[in-house]
TrEMBL record:
It comes from the Bacteria. The gene is lpdA. Residues 148-167 are annotated as: Disordered. Its cofactor is FAD. Keywords: Cytoplasm, Disulfide bond, FAD, Flavoprotein, NAD, Nucleotide-binding, Oxidoreductase, Redox-active center. Residues 154-164 have a biased composition (Polar residues). GO terms for molecular function: dihydrolipoyl dehydrogenase (NADH) activity; flavin adenine dinucleotide binding. It comes from Pseudonocardia broussonetiae. It is found in: Cytoplasm. This is Dihydrolipoyl dehydrogenase. Residues 346-452 form the Pyridine nucleotide-disulphide oxidoreductase dimerisation domain.
Length: 464
């Protein structure tokens, strides 16, 4: 008989979610983790990064306190060690809570590096764990650029930036990559007074892939207005270390240039961790990019009884997507017939200032898919609550099939991360804009902008 009903390899969001969900359903579970449960999201990614973004928000707010009728004695200064100490406290508290929850659910946590065996078990430092089913959730690590050696000090990845032990911020930073990670750190550094340059290889220097262009452009303008130097279609050359810092040469369609910085942040995405996990020996197929191949209807791999979820498969690399995939995999292990994750409609959030959030198709994607679309937008500039907050950069954009349901919801502005889910529900329930527009939105509130945008599909409007 197997030792466990389920063996989970990897303790990040997908792994611990699978373990907790399975245990709540009465399964016996072993969770294998070589570091700390919580994974990248808790210890090096989502949580610490957002804690630093909040520190930047507080600093930005205090810097403008006088505009709100609050006097402060002297200009505020960022306290980088204090921000990192608070961030570490939040991470430690969440780790303690997660560890306690796993213990209460009677999940057996096994410390060590696990790998699949030829017979489909999991070997951990000589100990073999037999499971009726196995879920792989081995996560991801930052991608690197050949010839640009990361040293954790002058050339860093997001892993280092969220766990900085420096006593002070660098004065000059070059962020290579304008995707989600690069945009978020550019926002942090810019707001804390660091001279920040963002270099992106693709057209459109900020969020070139993902959100509707109208929303991404609002963020780009805001970053530029606050001091970020953004260069699109930038090809970075070989770095040169000098006595004063690092010289970063780059080329754009406008010509060649270079800048000198104290630190280079490489943020060009993440790659799956699937080397050395015994996939080939166990008959689990891995594609040429390193992702475990799965049937996304069940999250099952090429070997029956072995599943894979999270960043090690080629689905959106989001913690909440890993949670959803964990539920699908566990329910399939239980013999149920779970609905698969609809990856085209999952919620996305970029926690910059202003925040960017979306679900479903952009206008360009909808038109490319052959839909006859109707599009309406509502600027946050006229929203009373946004004016009270002093945060009027932003808009709501809704893309709908003409005479049909909402295809995409896109928003940029204050607390877009929290306001997104009304639009997410509309997209996933294929709601008609008129139906959403008839729902009552509290006044004054930021969410009124959503209602105002939906109302305009009726051919009428209130304030817009």
């Amino acid at each position: 008989m197997p030792d466990y009903d389920l063996v989970v390899l990897g303790g990040g969001p997908g792994g611990y979610a699978a373990a907790l969900y399975a245990a709540s359903a009465g399964l016996t579970v072993a969770l294998v983790e070589k570091e700390k449960v919580g994974g990248t999201c808790l210890h090096r990614g989502c949580i610490p990064a957002k804690a630093l973004l909040h520190a930047a928000e507080v600093f930005r707010t205090v810097s403008h306190a006088a505009e709100h009728g609050v006097r402060v004695s002297g200009p505020p200064e960022p306290d980088w060690p204090a921000a990192n100490k608070r961030k570490a406290g939040i991470v430690n508290q969440l780790h303690k809570g997660l560890s306690g929850l796993l213990k209460r659910r009677k999940v057996t946590v096994v410390d060590g590096f696990g790998r699949l065996t030829a017979d489909g078990a999991v070997s951990v430092d000589g100990q073999v764990l037999q499971g009726r089913a196995v879920i792989l959730c081995t996560g991801s690590v930052p991608r690197s650029i050949p010839g640009m050696e990361v040293d954790g000090s002058s050339i860093v990845t997001s892993d280092h930036s969220t766990n900085s032990s420096d006593d002070r911020l660098p004065e000059r930073v070059a962020v290579i990559g304008g995707g989600v990670i690069g945009a978020e750190f550019a926002s942090v550094y810019t707001d804390l007074g660091v001279r920040t340059t963002l270099l992106e290889a693709l057209p459109h220097g900020v969020l070139p892939i993902g959100p509707d262009r109208d929303c991404a452009d609002v963020l780009a303008r805001s970053l530029t207005k606050r001091g970020t130097s953004i260069h699109a279609e930038a090809r970075v050359g070989s770095l040169e270390h000098t006595s004063n810092g690092i010289v970063v040469p780059y080329e754009t369609p406008r010509g060649s240039d270079k800048l000198e910085v104290d630190q280079v942040l490489v943020s060009i995405g993440r790659r799956p961790v699937t080397e050395g996990i015994g996939a080939e020996e166990a008959g689990v197929r891995v594609d040429e990019r390193g992702f475990v191949e799965v049937d996304t209807a069940t999250m099952q791999t090429s070997r029956p009884g072995v599943y894979a979820i999270g960043d090690c498969v080629g689905t959106p690399g989001l913690a909440h997507v890993a949670y959803a995939e964990a539920v699908v995999a566990v329910e399939h292990v239980l013999g149920e017939d779970p609905p698969p994750v609809d990856y085209a409609k999952v919620p996305w959030v970029v926690y910059t200032h202003p925040e960017v959030a979306w679900s479903g198709m952009s206008e360009a994607e909808a038109r490319s898919a052959g839909f006859e679309v109707e599009v309406h937008k509502h600027a946050m500039a006229g929203n009373g609550r946004a004016m009270i907050l002093g945060e009027t950069d932003g808009l709501v954009k809704v893309v709908a099939q003409r005479g049909g349901p909402v295809l995409g919801f896109h928003m940029v502005g204050p607390w877009a991360s929290e306001l997104l889910h009304e639009g997410y529900l509309a997209v996933n329930w294929e709601a008609l804009p008129d139906d959403v527009g008839r729902l009552v939105h509290a006044h004054p509130s930021l969410s009124e902008a959503i209602g105002e945008t939906m109302i305009t599909f009726s051919g009428r409007s209130l304030h817009g």
